[in-house]
Design brief:
Radius of gyration: 13 Å
Low-confidence stretches: none
Structural class: mainly alpha
Distance between the termini: 23 Å
Helix content: 40-55%
Number of strands: 2
Mean pLDDT: 90
Shape: globular
Order of helices and strands: EHHHHEH
Largest sheet: 2 strands, antiparallel
């Protein structure tokens, strides 16, 4: 039985809109660039909450904008997936 993913990671969309490169975010957040690329490309199945917090804090510091968790990921109920 395959489980469907109900969490959509929007980090790529968010940093594109903020005009921040993946490498710049990784460098400033002091995380592996591959982590940022995998998050942006939807290849990550798990993310450490502390790391996620660091990424959001860094994005806020880099842009001066008030980013929140909902700006980098969202929950999509299974019954709403068909309409996407």
């Amino acid at each position: 039985m395959e489980l469907a993913m109900s969490i959509h990671i929007k980090l790529g969309e968010t940093i594109d809109a903020a005009n921040v490169s993946r490498n710049a975010l990784a460098r400033e957040a002091k995380v592996r660039p591959n982590l940022i690329y995998d998050l942006c490309d939807g290849k990550t199945k798990r993310v450490d909450l502390n790391t996620l917090s660091i990424i959001i804090d860094t994005l806020r510091a880099m842009t001066g904008k008030d980013y929140r968790l909902m700006d980098v990921m969202e929950y999509i109920p299974e019954d709403n997936k068909e309409s996407r």
